[in-house]
């Protein structure tokens, strides 16, 4: 893997830097999830939830925390942000 970041341009014309071979544009990814119910999370965390079939707050009802934290792309900070959002909604 190349450790230096290369400047890249996506098909929409966004400029971004990547050190990996991943061609995914982070700007396009962020735009893609702007209206998602979990848009306050990072795109990797949103993708992790989507991949598990969790696409809105109702889907979280029967999901345990230990299941979420094991998801690739969903870490402690995502869990904290999700808990804060759930607290806001339950008030």
Describe the structure using short key phrases:
91 residues; mainly alpha; two-stranded antiparallel ribbon; 40% helix; 9% strand; elongated
Q: Would you mind describing this structure in some detail?
A:
- With about 90 residues, the protein is mostly helical.
- It is built from 4 helices and 2 strands; from the N terminus they run ββαααα.
- It has helices at about 25-30, 45-50, 65-70, 75-90, and strands spanning about 5-10, 15-20.
- It has a two-stranded antiparallel ribbon with strand order 1-2.
- Strand 1 (about 5-10) and strand 2 (about 15-20) form a beta hairpin.
- The protein is elongated and about 45 Å long.
- The mean pLDDT is about 90.
Lay out the secondary structure.
Layout: E1 6-9, E2 15-18, H1 26-32, H2 43-51, H3 65-69, H4 76-90
Antiparallel strand pairs: 1-2
Straight-line N-to-C gap: 47 Å
Low-confidence stretches: none
Radius of gyration: 15 Å
- The structure class reads mainly alpha
Describe the oligomeric state of these chains in a short phrase.
single chain
Largest sheet properties? 2 strands, antiparallel
Tally of DSSP helical segments:
4
Average of the residue pLDDT scores: 89
H/E element string? EEHHHH
Strand order of the largest sheet: 1-2
Helix content: 25-40%
Number of strands: 2
Query: What fraction of the residues are assigned to beta strands by DSSP?
Result: 5-15%
What is the 3D shape?
Answer: elongated
Quick structural summary:
The chain is mainly alpha-helical. The protein has 4 helices and 2 strands, in the order ββαααα.
